[in-house]
Amino acid sequence: MHGHHSVSSQSDIQALKSVLHKYPNFPVKGVLFEDFLPIFRDPSLFRKLINAFKTHLEAVYQAQKIDYIVGLEARGFLIGPSLALAMGVGFVPIRKAGKLPGECVRTVYEKEYGKDTFELQVSAMPPGSNVVVIDDIIASGGTAIAAQDLLNQISVNILEYDFVLELDFLNGKKNLGCPVFTLLSEQEFALH
Ligand SMILES: O=P(O)(O)OC[C@H]1O[C@H](OP(=O)(O)OP(=O)(O)O)[C@H](O)[C@@H]1O
Ligand SMILES: Nc1ncnc2[nH]cnc12
Protein backbone atom coordinates (compact mmCIF):
# COMPACT_ATOMS: atom_id res chain seq x y z
CA MET A 1 0.00 0.00 0.00
CA HIS A 2 1.08 3.61 -0.47
CA GLY A 3 2.32 4.74 2.91
CA HIS A 4 1.01 8.27 3.21
CA HIS A 5 -2.48 7.83 1.81
CA SER A 6 -4.96 7.97 4.70
CA VAL A 7 -7.96 6.85 2.63
CA SER A 8 -8.33 3.94 0.22
CA SER A 9 -8.10 4.67 -3.46
CA GLN A 10 -11.40 5.36 -5.16
CA SER A 11 -10.65 2.59 -7.65
CA ASP A 12 -10.33 0.03 -4.82
CA ILE A 13 -13.67 1.19 -3.39
CA GLN A 14 -15.31 0.98 -6.83
CA ALA A 15 -13.87 -2.51 -7.39
CA LEU A 16 -15.34 -3.67 -4.07
CA LYS A 17 -18.74 -2.08 -4.80
CA SER A 18 -18.90 -3.61 -8.26
CA VAL A 19 -19.27 -7.18 -6.93
CA LEU A 20 -21.98 -6.49 -4.31
CA HIS A 21 -25.30 -8.14 -5.05
CA LYS A 22 -28.85 -7.35 -3.90
CA TYR A 23 -31.56 -10.01 -3.39
CA PRO A 24 -35.15 -8.75 -3.00
CA ASN A 25 -37.38 -10.51 -0.46
CA PHE A 26 -34.63 -12.47 1.30
CA PRO A 27 -34.70 -13.97 3.93
CA VAL A 28 -38.28 -12.66 4.32
CA LYS A 29 -40.67 -10.67 2.11
CA GLY A 30 -39.94 -6.92 2.10
CA VAL A 31 -36.22 -7.16 2.93
CA LEU A 32 -33.64 -6.20 0.29
CA PHE A 33 -30.70 -8.44 1.19
CA GLU A 34 -27.21 -7.08 0.51
CA ASP A 35 -24.71 -9.87 -0.26
CA PHE A 36 -21.03 -9.02 0.20
CA LEU A 37 -19.73 -12.61 -0.08
CA PRO A 38 -18.44 -12.16 -3.69
CA ILE A 39 -15.62 -10.03 -2.21
CA PHE A 40 -14.16 -13.16 -0.58
CA ARG A 41 -14.20 -15.19 -3.79
CA ASP A 42 -11.43 -13.00 -5.20
CA PRO A 43 -8.26 -12.74 -3.09
CA SER A 44 -7.34 -9.37 -4.59
CA LEU A 45 -10.72 -7.95 -3.50
CA PHE A 46 -10.47 -9.61 -0.08
CA ARG A 47 -7.03 -7.99 0.32
CA LYS A 48 -8.42 -4.59 -0.77
CA LEU A 49 -11.19 -4.92 1.84
CA ILE A 50 -8.78 -5.68 4.69
CA ASN A 51 -6.30 -3.00 3.56
CA ALA A 52 -9.07 -0.39 3.35
CA PHE A 53 -10.17 -0.96 6.96
CA LYS A 54 -6.55 -1.12 8.15
CA THR A 55 -5.66 2.14 6.37
CA HIS A 56 -8.70 3.85 7.87
CA LEU A 57 -7.97 2.65 11.42
CA GLU A 58 -4.27 3.48 11.25
CA ALA A 59 -5.12 7.00 10.12
CA VAL A 60 -7.68 7.58 12.91
CA TYR A 61 -5.83 5.82 15.77
CA GLN A 62 -2.25 7.05 15.53
CA ALA A 63 -2.04 8.14 19.15
CA GLN A 64 -4.46 5.65 20.71
CA LYS A 65 -3.86 1.92 20.87
CA ILE A 66 -6.52 -0.49 19.60
CA ASP A 67 -6.41 -3.55 21.89
CA TYR A 68 -8.87 -5.83 20.10
CA ILE A 69 -11.00 -6.17 17.01
CA VAL A 70 -14.40 -7.56 18.09
CA GLY A 71 -16.28 -9.47 15.36
CA LEU A 72 -20.02 -10.23 15.36
CA GLU A 73 -21.24 -13.68 14.33
CA ALA A 74 -21.31 -14.71 11.60
CA ARG A 75 -20.24 -12.25 8.92
CA GLY A 76 -18.07 -10.19 11.27
CA PHE A 77 -15.95 -13.36 11.53
CA LEU A 78 -15.13 -13.14 7.82
CA ILE A 79 -13.42 -9.76 8.26
CA GLY A 80 -12.37 -9.46 11.90
CA PRO A 81 -9.62 -12.09 12.25
CA SER A 82 -7.87 -11.10 8.99
CA LEU A 83 -8.01 -7.42 9.95
CA ALA A 84 -6.75 -8.11 13.48
CA LEU A 85 -3.85 -10.20 12.13
CA ALA A 86 -2.95 -7.53 9.57
CA MET A 87 -2.93 -4.90 12.34
CA GLY A 88 -1.15 -7.02 14.93
CA VAL A 89 -3.96 -6.82 17.51
CA GLY A 90 -6.15 -9.48 19.14
CA PHE A 91 -9.48 -10.78 17.87
CA VAL A 92 -12.52 -11.53 20.06
CA PRO A 93 -15.82 -13.02 18.83
CA ILE A 94 -19.34 -12.18 19.99
CA ARG A 95 -21.43 -15.29 19.29
CA LYS A 96 -25.03 -16.44 19.07
CA ALA A 97 -26.26 -18.11 22.28
CA GLY A 98 -24.97 -21.47 23.46
CA LYS A 99 -21.70 -21.54 21.51
CA LEU A 100 -19.18 -20.12 23.98
CA PRO A 101 -17.81 -22.02 27.02
CA GLY A 102 -17.19 -20.52 30.47
CA GLU A 103 -18.82 -17.51 32.09
CA CYS A 104 -20.56 -15.32 29.51
CA VAL A 105 -22.60 -12.15 29.46
CA ARG A 106 -25.75 -12.37 27.34
CA THR A 107 -28.30 -10.08 25.66
CA VAL A 108 -31.44 -10.56 23.57
CA TYR A 109 -31.98 -8.23 20.59
CA GLU A 110 -34.12 -7.47 17.53
CA LYS A 111 -32.61 -7.10 14.06
CA GLU A 112 -34.14 -6.11 10.71
CA TYR A 113 -35.59 -9.59 10.16
CA GLY A 114 -35.90 -11.30 13.52
CA LYS A 115 -34.81 -11.81 17.09
CA ASP A 116 -31.54 -13.28 18.39
CA THR A 117 -29.31 -13.73 21.46
CA PHE A 118 -25.65 -12.75 21.67
CA GLU A 119 -22.97 -13.86 24.16
CA LEU A 120 -19.42 -12.76 25.06
CA GLN A 121 -16.92 -14.53 27.31
CA VAL A 122 -16.29 -12.49 30.46
CA SER A 123 -12.60 -13.51 30.44
CA ALA A 124 -12.07 -12.46 26.81
CA MET A 125 -10.73 -8.96 27.53
CA PRO A 126 -9.60 -7.02 30.61
CA PRO A 127 -11.82 -4.10 31.76
CA GLY A 128 -10.73 -0.83 30.14
CA SER A 129 -9.69 -2.45 26.85
CA ASN A 130 -10.19 -0.31 23.73
CA VAL A 131 -11.89 -2.12 20.87
CA VAL A 132 -13.20 -1.65 17.35
CA VAL A 133 -16.38 -3.60 16.55
CA ILE A 134 -16.66 -4.99 13.02
CA ASP A 135 -19.56 -6.44 11.03
CA ASP A 136 -20.66 -6.61 7.41
CA ILE A 137 -23.73 -4.38 7.61
CA ILE A 138 -25.73 -2.14 9.92
CA ALA A 139 -29.46 -2.34 9.17
CA SER A 140 -31.81 -1.60 12.11
CA GLY A 141 -28.79 -1.26 14.42
CA GLY A 142 -30.18 -3.87 16.83
CA THR A 143 -27.13 -6.11 16.47
CA ALA A 144 -24.70 -3.24 17.01
CA ILE A 145 -26.55 -2.09 20.15
CA ALA A 146 -26.52 -5.67 21.48
CA ALA A 147 -22.72 -5.72 21.06
CA GLN A 148 -22.51 -2.37 22.91
CA ASP A 149 -24.59 -3.84 25.75
CA LEU A 150 -22.26 -6.87 26.13
CA LEU A 151 -19.07 -4.81 25.93
CA ASN A 152 -20.47 -2.39 28.54
CA GLN A 153 -21.22 -5.34 30.83
CA ILE A 154 -17.50 -6.25 30.92
CA SER A 155 -16.40 -2.56 31.01
CA VAL A 156 -14.76 -2.55 27.59
CA ASN A 157 -14.57 0.75 25.68
CA ILE A 158 -15.78 0.90 22.05
CA LEU A 159 -13.63 3.29 19.99
CA GLU A 160 -15.83 2.89 16.90
CA TYR A 161 -17.91 0.57 14.74
CA ASP A 162 -16.73 -0.42 11.27
CA PHE A 163 -19.12 -1.81 8.66
CA VAL A 164 -18.83 -2.64 4.98
CA LEU A 165 -22.40 -1.44 4.29
CA GLU A 166 -25.22 0.49 5.95
CA LEU A 167 -28.91 0.72 5.14
CA ASP A 168 -29.36 4.50 5.50
CA PHE A 169 -33.15 4.45 5.48
CA LEU A 170 -33.24 2.38 8.70
CA ASN A 171 -31.04 4.95 10.49
CA GLY A 172 -29.44 2.22 12.60
CA LYS A 173 -26.66 4.55 13.77
CA LYS A 174 -28.98 6.83 15.75
CA ASN A 175 -28.80 4.94 19.05
CA LEU A 176 -25.08 4.18 18.98
CA GLY A 177 -23.02 6.34 21.32
CA CYS A 178 -19.80 6.19 19.30
CA PRO A 179 -18.43 6.86 15.81
CA VAL A 180 -19.49 4.68 12.88
CA PHE A 181 -17.35 4.17 9.77
CA THR A 182 -18.93 2.54 6.70
CA LEU A 183 -16.48 1.57 3.97
CA LEU A 184 -18.96 1.26 1.07
CA SER A 185 -21.89 3.42 2.09
CA GLU A 186 -25.26 2.65 0.55
CA GLN A 187 -25.59 6.24 -0.71
CA GLU A 188 -22.39 6.06 -2.77
CA PHE A 189 -23.38 2.55 -3.78
CA ALA A 190 -26.66 3.93 -5.18
CA LEU A 191 -24.83 6.61 -7.19
CA HIS A 192 -22.59 4.01 -8.78
O1 LIG B 1 -28.65 -3.93 12.09
P1 LIG B 1 -29.46 -5.17 12.22
O2 LIG B 1 -30.90 -5.00 11.82
O3 LIG B 1 -29.35 -5.75 13.60
O4 LIG B 1 -28.90 -6.25 11.18
C1 LIG B 1 -27.53 -6.45 10.92
C2 LIG B 1 -27.09 -7.83 11.28
O5 LIG B 1 -27.88 -8.82 10.58
C3 LIG B 1 -27.02 -9.73 9.93
O6 LIG B 1 -26.70 -10.80 10.76
P2 LIG B 1 -27.56 -12.12 11.00
O7 LIG B 1 -27.98 -12.14 12.43
O8 LIG B 1 -28.57 -12.30 9.94
O9 LIG B 1 -26.32 -13.08 10.87
P3 LIG B 1 -25.96 -14.50 10.40
O10 LIG B 1 -25.25 -14.28 9.11
O11 LIG B 1 -25.09 -14.92 11.54
O12 LIG B 1 -27.23 -15.28 10.31
C4 LIG B 1 -25.78 -8.91 9.63
O13 LIG B 1 -24.65 -9.72 9.38
C5 LIG B 1 -25.64 -8.06 10.86
O14 LIG B 1 -24.95 -8.75 11.89
N1 LIG C 1 -30.85 -6.07 4.26
C1 LIG C 1 -29.87 -6.84 4.77
N2 LIG C 1 -28.93 -7.40 3.95
C2 LIG C 1 -27.94 -8.17 4.46
N3 LIG C 1 -27.81 -8.42 5.77
C3 LIG C 1 -28.70 -7.89 6.61
N4 LIG C 1 -28.84 -7.96 7.96
C4 LIG C 1 -29.90 -7.24 8.32
N5 LIG C 1 -30.50 -6.69 7.26
C5 LIG C 1 -29.77 -7.08 6.17
Automatic annotation (TrEMBL):
Main subcellular localisation: cytoplasm
Family matches, as SUPFAM superfamilies: PRTase-like
Superkingdom in the source lineage: Eukaryota
Pfam families named among the record's database cross-references: Pribosyltran
InterPro entries listed in its UniProt record: Ade_phspho_trans, PRTase-like, PRTase_dom, UPRTase/APRTase
Catalytic reactions of this protein: AMP + diphosphate = 5-phospho-alpha-D-ribose 1-diphosphate + adenine
Start and end residues of each Phosphoribosyltransferase domain: 49-156
GO cellular component, one term: cytoplasm
Protein EC: 2.4.2.7
GO biological process terms held by the UniProt record: adenine salvage; AMP salvage; purine ribonucleoside salvage
Quaternary structure note: Homodimer.
Role noted for this protein: Catalyzes a salvage reaction resulting in the formation of AMP, that is energically less costly than de novo synthesis.
Name the UniProt record assigns to this protein: adenine phosphoribosyltransferase
Species this protein is from: Maudiozyma humilis
